[in-house]
Design brief:
The chain is α+β, with helices and mostly antiparallel strands. It has helices spanning 13-20, 52-60, and strands at residues 32-33, 48-49, 64-70, 73-78.
């Protein structure tokens, strides 16, 4: 089963995913983003933070299942 959590900014996606991550037998995919890391975020747990050059290189190399520009930054899911 695949569960996709999606919604607008401030909808509570992070709150839901943090609760789900506490369950056993769940694989959690960490998204990649070009946006700056926020103070309370942990690299590799909340997101993988990369620069735009690296992100676009990975796009060209076909490393993403999906990706999209959002509010001037890129977000994607690695294969």
């Amino acid at each position: 089963m695949i569960i996709v959590i999606s919604g607008p900014s401030g909808a509570g996606k992070t709150t839901i995913t943090r609760k789900l991550r506490k369950l056993e037998d769940i694989f959690y995919s960490v998204s990649v983003t070009t946006r700056p890391k926020r103070e309370n975020e942990v690299e590799g747990f909340d997101y993988r933070f990369v620069d735009e050059e690296t992100f676009k290189k990975w796009v060209d190399e076909g490393k993403f299942l999906e990706y999209a520009p959002v509010y001037g930054n890129y977000y994607g899911t690695l294969k």
